[in-house]
Amino acid sequence: MTNVIPPMTDSLGRYWKQPPRERILVDDTHALMAERDFLALLEYSSTKPGVVYPGKMWRRHDGIYDKNCPRDRCRWLLCWYGEVPGNPKVCSVNFRDVLLHDAPDPNASKDSA
After folding, report:
1. Which of 84, 74, 80 is nearest to 96 (CA)?
2. pLDDT for res 43
3. Do residues 57 and 18 lie in contact, with contact meaning Cβ atoms separated by under 8 Å?
4. Strands 30-34 and 25-26
5. pLDDT of amino acid 72
6. What is the predicted pLDDT for the residue at 2?
7. Could you please report the per-residue DSSP string of the chain?
8. 82, 90, 77: which is closest to 41 by C-alpha?
């Protein structure tokens, strides 16, 4: 498993909306991001995005459609298609538990009081 979300370089990526990967910190188990970036991810909780290329990210509410999943086990995941070294025609599916942090919106206007 990799902790790097690759750049989305496929030409079809221009039609896929997602936050910049540089604003998401990923380790072996978690993805740390601002709520605005989390909400900017498209949700695919019961499927995966059909067109596959490296760098494509989405969010998944794991367990939401499993009636046997205890509520405390249901969780949000950041998912992305990754590169498979030595095989450019295959993508890996990677995921991490989501942790949200409060970050100021860089596009918000500042008060000049």
Report:
1. 80
2. 95
3. yes
4. antiparallel
5. 74
6. 60
7. --S-PPP--SGGGGG-----GGG-EE-SSEEEEEHHHHHHSPB-SSS--SS--TT-EEEEEETTT-TTS-GGG-EEEEEEEEE-TT-TT-EEEEEEEEEEE----TTSPPP--
8. 77
Please state, for a pLDDT cut of 70, what percent of the chain lies above it: 88
Locus of tokens 């409060």: 102
87 token code pair: 């095989």
Q: What angle do CA 105, 56, 41 make, to 5 degrees?
A: 35
Contact between 38 and 23 under an 8 Å Cβ cutoff? The reply is no
